[in-house]
């Protein structure tokens, strides 16, 4: 089965392709099909993921999978949330993973409450008008490190510490990260939903 991935993020594509391989699903990034980015005007992961999935399905004629994910920091009332990818820009930095990490560590300087969660919401639709989208949410609670550690992953992986391991996501081998991550958890749930309802 071919699914269009409503993203052009290479890291996300690689992670999800590995996770969906057991189902025989081939993910194709929407950019490869000439599809641009959808508007993401909403304040929740599920609404934005649904908008992205419907947009990709409408522009390709294929079933679509979208992921809206982000970092929710306890001390910031759950922010940056859906604005995670653009976090650094509100502090005068260019958009990008390294700048996001830098801005976060600057904003958390002196804070003792370092609790945070990585959240991934996957939405799959068979068509733009699918009345029953599949929705899977993965969440991993942890803490924000005081400095980046590790060289793997992307996004906030170098500062997201898993307390039970004492390591950041960026310090884990890719297969272990995928098994434990918010996206990995959401993908496992999505695979089960697809097996049950689509295959």
TrEMBL record:
It comes from Pulveribacter suum. The keyword Nucleotide-binding applies. Belongs to the HAM1 NTPase family. InterPro entries: dITP/XTP_pyrophosphatase, ITPase-like_fam, RdgB/HAM1. Homodimer. Its cofactor is Mg(2+). Binds 1 Mg(2+) ion per subunit. One of its GO terms (molecular function) is dITP diphosphatase activity. It is an enzyme of class 3 (hydrolase). Pyrophosphatase that catalyzes the hydrolysis of nucleoside triphosphates to their monophosphate derivatives, with a high preference for the non-canonical purine nucleotides XTP (xanthosine triphosphate), dITP (deoxyinosine triphosphate) and ITP. Seems to function as a house-cleaning enzyme that removes non-canonical purine nucleotides from the nucleotide pool, thus preventing their incorporation into DNA/RNA and avoiding chromosomal lesions. It holds the Pfam family Ham1p_like. One of its GO terms (cellular component) is cytosol. Substrate binds at residues 7-12, 69, 154-157, 177, 182-183. The lineage of its organism: Bacteria, Pseudomonadati, Pseudomonadota, Betaproteobacteria, Burkholderiales. Keywords: Hydrolase, Magnesium, Metal-binding, Nucleotide metabolism, Nucleotide-binding. HAMAP family: Non_canon_purine_NTPase. It catalyses: XTP + H2O = XMP + diphosphate + H(+); dITP + H2O = dIMP + diphosphate + H(+); ITP + H2O = IMP + diphosphate + H(+). Mg(2+) binds at residues 39, 68. Its EC number is 3.6.1.66. One of its GO terms (biological process) is purine nucleoside triphosphate catabolic process. This is dITP/XTP pyrophosphatase. The active site is at 68 (proton acceptor).
